[in-house]
Amino acid sequence: MSLLPVDEAVARIVASVTPLGKEPVSLDEALGRTLATPLAATRTQPPFPASAMDGYAVRAADTENVPAELKIIGVAAAGHGFNGTVGRGQAVRLSTGAPMPDGADAVLIKENAEAVDDDTVSAMDSATAGRHIRQPGLDFREGEVLLAAGRRFGAREIALAAAMNHATVPVRRRPKVAIISTGDELVRPGKVPGPDQIVASNDLGLTAFARLSGGEPHNLGIVIDDEEAIGEAVDAALAIPADILVTLGGASVGDHDLVQAVLLDKGMTLDFWRIAMRPGKPLMFGRFHRTLVLGLPGNPVSSIVCALLFLRPLISALLGAPQVDPSEPCLLGGDLRENDNRQDYLRASLAPGDFGLPTATALSTQDSSGLAVLASADCLIIRPPHAPPAKAGDPCRIIRLSGLQLV
Ligand code: AMP
Ligand code: MG
Predict the structure, then answer these.
(1) Residues at Cβ < 5 Å from ligand 2 ion
(2) Does this model's pTM top 0.85?
């Protein structure tokens, strides 16, 4: 069986998905959720001409020759406008955010004003008509679409939606991501492993990753390498019902790699299996009636790199979010050998480089079980299949691992 190129695998995964349904959430709960429909302003902001500074509302013409004494006829503050009209030789005391009173066309800023007495102020510098006044709609106008469908809510989006006067927003339902780890050798962190056992790391890493990516993780725990046990866990995932079932391990061609056989036996339609990449060759994608299945390799680094490359786009597609190329240009910090037929993702460190680009230097250990190296890396260098030998300073592309953090 030939190996599928990474880009083709991602394209097939994304193409097989339609976005999930919508639900309303309050803005308090919107962080990390994905907007399901375009969001338009329900009001104009600012709704009235407003002062951008503390000072006095005046007529610019009255301050052409300075110093000029003006009579203070009232006060306008944020939330409290002045009802009268500013006439010739008159001024209204202003604070930032106050509506501009009728008749005034300029703000004499406090720094350019000198109090003469309680009722009189002297303009020490000319005020320019329109300056320091925020006109209605400076920020946005009623009906303007300011957030596109597929936009993820961060701090800026939440503030803007609030300013547009949306108390609740329509978001996509979070994809339910069931996660099953397989392996007789695995124990949960905190337990004492037997002499032939190791501590399972992938399910917890992938649970965090699914959440960071906008999914709702359901960690179904560790199952032993036994067809019946794996089958029961698959049934539990389908009963949720999970939108995505992620299996970890048991994905290769060893005697104890039973996951694919169990899934096929339960009626999964296999789309593809085995990718031309390193780490992570034995990746599998298929589907049950409504549950998409992503079978990830068991090696800890492979599973996380594959999650970054395949699970994130899958979750984004279910959320109706745009697909973004996670890679960016960079320069090599060291020489690299010719590559074989698999696309490499080399754990690497970043340093400032020339031409405004960083340099990426591959770390000395690239074993697909090395979580410590992965945690110390800044990025992955992408080495395309059959890439010729490369020299330090040559251009390359990288994926920053900051995508695995809360940012
Ligand atoms: P497998 O794909 O089951 O052949 O596993 C490949 C390697 O990854 C083996 O060395 C497993 O012990 C290891 N492995 C599998 N699952 C996990 C896990 N959940 N956490 C840590 N290591 C794992
Ligand atoms: Mg195994």
Answers:
(1) 183, 249-250, 298
(2) yes
H helix intervals, 169-282: 202-212, 227-239, 259-265
Strand partners, 222: 181
Q: Quick one: CA torsion of 31, 32, 38, 41, rounded to 10 degrees?
A: 20
H helix or E strand, kind and range, residue 282: none
What's the rounded mean pLDDT across residues 105-125?
A: 97
Nearest CA to ligand 1 atom 6: 298
Query: Cβ distance 56 to 68 under 8 Å?
Result: no
63 φ/ψ angles, rounded to the nearest 5 degrees:
-115, 15
DSSP letter at 307 equals: I
Q: Are strands 133-134 and 198-199 parallel, antiparallel or unpaired?
A: unpaired
pLDDT > 70 fraction of the chain, expressed in percent and rounded: 99
163 Rama sector, left if φ>0, alpha if ψ -120 to 50, beta otherwise: alpha
Nearest to 348 by CA among 251, 336, 293: 336
Helix (H, G, I), strand (E, B) or coil at 101: coil
The first and second tokens of residue 121, run together, are 């102020």
* E strand or H helix that includes residue 131: none
3-state class of 43 per DSSP? coil
Rg of the chain (C-alpha set):
30
- The ligand with the least distance to the CA atom of 247 is 1
pLDDT tens for 275-294 read 999 998 899 999 999 999 99
Atom 15 of ligand 1, nearest CA residue: 298
Question: Of 179, 186, 188, 296, which is best to mutate to test ligand 1, by the most ligand atoms within 8 angstroms of its C-beta?
Answer: 186
Cα separation, 346 vs 344, whole angstroms:
6
Would strands 343-351 and 277-278 be described as parallel, antiparallel, or unpaired? parallel
Question: What is the spatial order of strands in the sheet that 269-273 belongs to?
Answer: 216-223, 176-182, 244-248, 292-296, 284-287, 269-273
User: What pLDDT score does 1 carry?
Assistant: 62
Closest-CA residue, ligand 1 atom 10, reads 299
pLDDT averaged over every residue in the chain: 96
Distances in Å between the alpha carbon of 153 and those of 142, 160, 163, 308? 21, 10, 14, 20
Looking at residue 407, what is its pLDDT? 54
Evaluate if residue 127 carries a pLDDT over 70.
yes
For residue 297, which atom of ligand 1 is closest to its CA?
A: 2
Nearest to 304 by CA among 212, 175, 386: 212
